[in-house]
Design brief:
With 204 residues, this protein is α/β, with parallel strands linked by helices. Helices cover 44% and strands 22% of the residues. It is globular.
């Protein structure tokens, strides 16, 4: 499959950011943000499956660390405080897993070393987090398509929480202005985000 212009632009930007960070002796950090259903998880899967740069990338999904449906801001703050800033400062960071079934913390994951790190999810691209990132990416897509994707993925659970989550995201956007922080803005409404390793599309 010939990559789209959007995927080609992402690959070039990632390769450049990783090369620059590695040459400077720091862990490359890539943030991918955007509204629910825009395709963040799918794009991250595709990116790792066709990694365009040196190193073996690690992936952290914000969905795995939000402390519940009201936890967007808490997750955004925690990923910067506990993972990104310590990783940049001394090469070791961590993040707190969240058990959505039990509604409680589920252990801490450690991240260390200089291999590239990709963080995807709503709230990842705050001003604080952007300050320690090597590449910041913002995804956008048609609003009706986004909601259909998100509910198809998560079903009735997300359908019931859509407005609650969107209100938090709108406040985050108004406060942090993530679009202005993005070095690369991609509209993926018409982009095929199939993960070649599985042959299926996994929307975010």
């Amino acid at each position: 499959m010939r990559p789209s212009a959007e995927l080609a632009a992402l690959g070039a930007a990632v390769a450049g950011a990783v090369d620059t960070a590695s040459a400077a002796g720091r862990t490359p950090i890539i943030l991918i943000d955007g509204p629910s259903g825009a395709g963040k998880s799918s794009l991250a899967d595709r990116l790792l499956a066709e990694w365009p740069a040196a190193g073996r990338p690690r992936l952290v999904r914000m969905d795995d660390l939000y402390p519940g449906w009201d936890g967007l801001d808490a997750g955004s703050e925690a990923v910067g405080r506990d993972l990104l800033e310590p990783l940049r400062a001394d090469g070791t960071g961590s993040w707190q897993r969240w058990d959505w079934t039990e509604g409680r913390p589920a252990g801490r994951a450690m991240v260390s070393g200089c291999e590239p790190l990709v963080v995807e999810g709503c709230g990842s691209l705050s001003r604080r987090n952007a300050a320690v990132a090597d590449l910041t990416v913002w995804l956008q897509a048609d609003d009706a398509l986004r909601k259909a994707r998100a509910i198809a993925r998560d079903g009735a659970a997300f359908a019931a929480e859509w407005d609650r989550w969107q209100e938090q995201f709108d406040r985050f956007v108004a406060r942090e202005h993530p679009l202005a922080l993005a070095a690369l803005v991609l509209d993926v409404t018409a982009v095929d985000l199939v993960d070649p390793s599985r042959g299926t599309t996994v929307e975010s």
